[in-house]
Amino acid sequence: MNNRQLLLNKRPVGFPSEDVWRLEYNEIPELQENELLAQVLYISLDPAMRGWMNDVKSYVPPVQIDEVMRCGGVARVLESNHPDFKTGDHVYGMTGVQEYCVTDGKGWVIVDPDLLPLPRYLGTLGMPGFTAYFGLLDVGQPKEGETVLISGAAGAVGSVTGQIAKIKGCRAVGIAGGPEKCSYVVNELGFDACIDYKNENVRQGIKEHCPNGIDIYFDNVGGEILDIALTRINKGARIPICGAISQYNNEVPVKGPSNYLSLLINSARMEGFVVFNYRHRYGEAAKMLGQWVAEGKIKSREHIETGLENWYPTFKKLFTGDKRGKLVLQIADQN
Amino acid sequence: MNNRQLLLNKRPVGFPSEDVWRLEYNEIPELQENELLAQVLYISLDPAMRGWMNDVKSYVPPVQIDEVMRCGGVARVLESNHPDFKTGDHVYGMTGVQEYCVTDGKGWVIVDPDLLPLPRYLGTLGMPGFTAYFGLLDVGQPKEGETVLISGAAGAVGSVTGQIAKIKGCRAVGIAGGPEKCSYVVNELGFDACIDYKNENVRQGIKEHCPNGIDIYFDNVGGEILDIALTRINKGARIPICGAISQYNNEVPVKGPSNYLSLLINSARMEGFVVFNYRHRYGEAAKMLGQWVAEGKIKSREHIETGLENWYPTFKKLFTGDKRGKLVLQIADQN
Lengths: 335, 335
What we know:
Two copies of one chain form a homodimer. Chain A is an alpha/beta fold and 335 residues long. Chain A has two domains: 2-123 and 300-330, Medium-chain alcohol dehydrogenases, catalytic domain (Quinone Oxidoreductase, Chain A, domain 1, Alpha-Beta Complex); 127-276, Rossmann fold (3-Layer(aba) Sandwich). Helices cover 25% and strands 25% of the residues of chain A. Chain A has helices spanning 48-52, 127-140, 156-167, 179-188, 202-209, 223-230, 262-265, 282-294, 311-320, and strands at 2-8, 21-27, 36-44, 73-80, 90-93, 100-103, 109-111, 147-151, 171-176, 193-196, 214-218, 233-241, 269-272, 302-306, 326-330. In chain A, strands 3, 4, 5, 6, 7, 14 and 15 form a seven-stranded mixed β-sheet that branches. In chain A, strands 10-9-8-11-12-13 form a six-stranded parallel β-sheet, with helices on both faces. A two-stranded antiparallel sheet of chain A has the order 1-2. In chain A, helix 2 packs across helix 3 (156-167) and helix 2 crosses helix 8 (282-294). The longest helix of chain A has 14 residues, at 127-140. Chain A is globular, with a radius of gyration of 20 Å. The relative contact order of chain A is 0.15. Chains A and B meet through helix 7 and strand 13 of A and helix 7 and strand 13 of B. Strand 13 of chain A pairs antiparallel with strand 13 (269-272) of chain B.
């Protein structure tokens, strides 16, 4: 049985061109003791992938040239020499962008397709949801009545962040691109307001929709919007730095926040985090998020594209914003 | 009796020119109930003064045009209608840049000239010392064995910060301008090392003197050095933002830290603070700092210039770095 794999072909400069990766058929290695073979069903596309391709020290080692492109995914166990997994189990783990994967199961978990649609384990009940959960609650520490501003509000992380903010009794204001996304954020997800950065003046929008200032700015985008947000923070504000999608494909140096001295004036803090720090608490996040989803307090949607051959146009959607909900690529039929 | 006062004449753009202020003789108003009249002996010159002159919202209101220039100082009570102060007391408070001041005494404290030289109440036992104390201990939260990097290490705040870091069992590495200051920082104050940013490569110096990375970067300067420090922080690092003296006289926008995404990668935080947040704990800081000074664990020196007419050349020294120790201007003879 041959395995179609997406390998990193060369390191990108700026926005990755299609030939940064190559598709290749390779033999599946023989299963060893304590390993399992799984068929990949859905993979998760996330902005963080862009960072994993740079040859720099980071919170995880970079993907190497000729290595399978890293990603999380949901798969079905075909064969198992591992005591914790059996044939037919649905599992979540770092599958990589390929049709089949062989793994020792470290960090993998079993997921239940009868409880939730499988792609949701890549979004709200997966890394993006956990990122929102720990980033807002642990780093942001929201208090009832506070105002939480969230960029990338229609995205996989931002959408959950705002809904948790609402659950915690905060005012949630989103920033997203385009009227459709803003309407989704307010009317479907229940944010108090959403600023359309493509068609509105963000400075004016923040002034209008955060009349009491910003207590938490949950930043997914960096760049100009971070700088504007910094001008409206309250004393003691928290800025969880979750990402900086506006800067990931830069060919020039990252734009640092010129208004960072607002942190000094307001005794505020800007704090980075990665979800992997909270590995030991994933169970807690899964339980709480699962409960909120069941209670209808957290809604979500996935944008599902199909076929490994559509990797590149799907990847591009991460950065063009031309997607609705958590971006997922279906690799094989679920049944 | 006439009072010579330094008034704000106009708002500066970039580095303040001499005519930003003017000296003027004015009548001393008659003393009211619960007021005191004091003769100013020493005033404190601090980089923060530059910020107070900008017409922007900050942690204190800006000094207004035609108002006495704001500053802290030590004075001697000449006359008192206030129950807490009597003639002959030495007092610390926001005297303003002038020969005499009339005040309701709010926020003023009595200081003892027999315990310490009076100028020290403007440095180690005053706002700069308190700033170091709370900025390092509360914001930085040093743990034994950690590495603390301090810019402006020969300055009023930085010099105390590094000595407290040593008291707490940390490795203290300074950054200062010129061999004389660096030698003072290491040989007199007991830092483990000091990088001369005027004559050495700071990146290389940090690499050499912080071989285990940076756990706390106590930032007084901002700009390029902040950006370099960000490339060497450890996981969970803290960056108390105390000041940004390199940026205060900018005529162009402040240089934001391009490497701020190092906060994300390292789950680190950058946190601003102002000493006034800790007003309710000044007593604690004064007690601890006083004890450390008495034990010889904290050393300090003051750079004292003389005469209100020398205000401008003295002020300039804040930013040229042409000073040794806490910058103080003597306004009147102490005895």
